[in-house]
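REVIEWER CHECKLIST
Item 1: Sequence provided? yes
Item 2: Single chain? yes
Item 3: Sequence as submitted:
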Amino acid sequence: MLRPIPARIMRSTATVKVGVGRDRYQNPVYETYTVKNVHLQPTNEIRKTASNTDCALRSVLFVDRRHSSPSLDWWTLFNTAHGLGIDMKIIVRGQEYTVQLVDELRDDTDQFHHYEIGLY
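Item 4: Structure as written out by the authors:
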């Protein structure tokens, strides 16, 4: 079993904006969540999405099972917004990012360990 991500690096707070529909003018309507104790790591990597397309990332947001709160089902939130054709947004330290992918990582005993949220 892996240890949790060290609490000393989980210092950021993220505002999550999930598209839940459209108003009568076809503008996106968002539900907002605040998640504490996350870590934003800058990157310039290319990853494959679930649809097997290449995706360039600016940052990766780490959301730990033990330290981050509240506990959200990131995969469901992402799929809900994506299914409505609305981008899921995350704001950390005043910078807004668009969620490109959500990876749920597990430890060696196949227990959920943390999420890695790919951002552009």
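Item 5: Key structural point noted by reviewer: The mean pLDDT is 92.
Item 6: Recommendation: ____
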